[in-house]
Structure formats: structure tokens, C-alpha cells
Amino acid sequence: MRHRHLSRLAAFAALLVVALAFSGCSIFDSPQNTFAPAGEVARDQKNIFFLTMWPALAILALVEGLLLFILFRFRHREGDDGLPQQVHGNNKLEIAWTIAPVLLLAFFVPPTIGGIVNLGRTPKDAVVVDVNGLQWKWLFEYPAADGGTPVQSADELHIPINKNVTFRLHSADVIHSFWVPKLAGKTDVIPGRQNHMWIKGTEIGTYSGQCAEFCGLDHARMRFTVVVESEEDYQSWLKQQAAAQGGSGQPALARTEDD
Q1: Which residues in 9-37 are b (16+ Cβ under 10 Å) and which e?
Q2: Would you say 185 and 214 are in contact if contact means Cβ atoms under 8 Å apart?
Q3: How far apart are CA 156 and CA 125, in angstroms?
Q4: CA–CA separation, 213 vs 171, rounded Å?
Q5: What is the pTM (predicted TM-score) of this model?
Q6: For the domain 32-69+95-247, what is the CATH superfamily, name and number?
Q7: In the chain, which residues have pLDDT < 50?
Q8: What is the pLDDT of residue 85?
Q9: Edge-to-edge, what's the strand order for the sheet holding 184-189?
Q10: How far, in Å, CA of 39 to CA of 204, rounded?
């Protein structure tokens, strides 16, 4: 009886853990929901994620199902003390489980490599924005509309809709990580090295971003917003910022030699 009681408690505890895990899943939108992309890069990354997730779940269900079947079907029974038939090797099975992973890799590798190559490219005719991470803020520097002094903003990034935007990522102190979940995956921002990434916002709105690398005591303050707006609103904002800064702004941070 005691053993049965403990088994029931263990099963109940397992159900509670599963329920707790599922409570973190929601179909409702949230500021950093990677499954509700609002940009081309984030959408491609979500598609690759699901491309690999569904086959992985099917394999998990198959393997765990077979394990459970074997555990119950061939469990030890009272009075059955004999050894089962011993099998040493099975050529057909060994060939099958060698070919199966090769086929899976042939299915997964091309889109994955294609996604990596796509992220590494520099889109033509892109707006170039310098992103500077420092404890504890983000500074953004944009090319001036008239080719004059660059425009700067802090913790609020503006980009035009349906236009490629390339970021040149710099750090003034420690390693940060630039991440806007609804627009693209994260990219590390490393001192003394310039990293690149690009995004393309396809839906007008304001999106939440943050540093995704623990960077010190006030890491939680490394949050920012990205405003995706029409080309007209973007150009108007640039002009307003340039006028407010008096046309005498300086680069937010000293650049590294490889800029």
C-alpha cells in the first residue's frame, strides 16, 4: 500500500510540473513573443524552428512510446526468472538507424544553412544604423537625411517599414547582446569588434527589445523600443531630431579601428 501511495504522489507531482510548464505557454500576444513575428528575419527564423520542431516531436513520441511499451510489455513477472533470448547485433536495424539520421540531416541542413547565409549577408540599399551598447543604455546613430551630422537617440530606435536596415554593433565596455524578439534573433555586441545584423520590419508598431547577455548589476535596465513607421514618418522624425540636436551632435562613442 505504501508503495502504491508513493507512486500516486509521484504521478500527481509529475502532472503538476507539466501543468506549470504549460502555464508559461500562451496563444495571446506578448511584447517579446517570438512566435508572433513582425519582420522578415524573425518570420524566417520561426519557420525554420517549426520545420525542425515537428519532426523532433514525432521522433520523441515514437521513442518514448516504444520505451513505455517495452517497460510494461516485458516487465519482470513473478516466477519468470529465465533469461530472454540474447541478441547480438542486427544488421538491418543498424543500417536503418544509420540511414534515418542521414535523411533527417538532408532534410534539415539546406534550409538551416540558407538561413545562416541570409543572415550574414548585407542587403543592398539598406539604411545603416550604428548601435552602441554601454552600461546601462543603448545609443543609436542614424545617417542624416541631408548627409550632414548624424542623428542620435537613446533607448528608442526608429526604422522605416518594409525597408532593410543594417546595424553596425559596437560595445563600449562589456559583452552585450542586441535582441528584438519580434523582428530578429539576438546578436552579441563585443568590445573591440564590430558585429553586423539586419532586419526588415513589415508591420507598423512599437516593439520591445533588450540586452540578452548578462552585463552587470543593472543588466535589467538594458531595455529599448523599436518603432517601425512609414517612410514619411521616419524622415519627419529624423528632421525633428536633427533640429532638436542643433546639428552639432558628435558620434555617440569612439569607433574601433575596423569600422
Answers
A1: eeeeeeeeeeeeeeeeeeeeeeeeeeebb
A2: no
A3: 23
A4: 12
A5: 0.76
A6: Cupredoxins -  blue copper proteins (2.60.40.420)
A7: 249-259
A8: 79
A9: 156-160, 223-229, 205-211, 176-180, 184-189
A10: 10
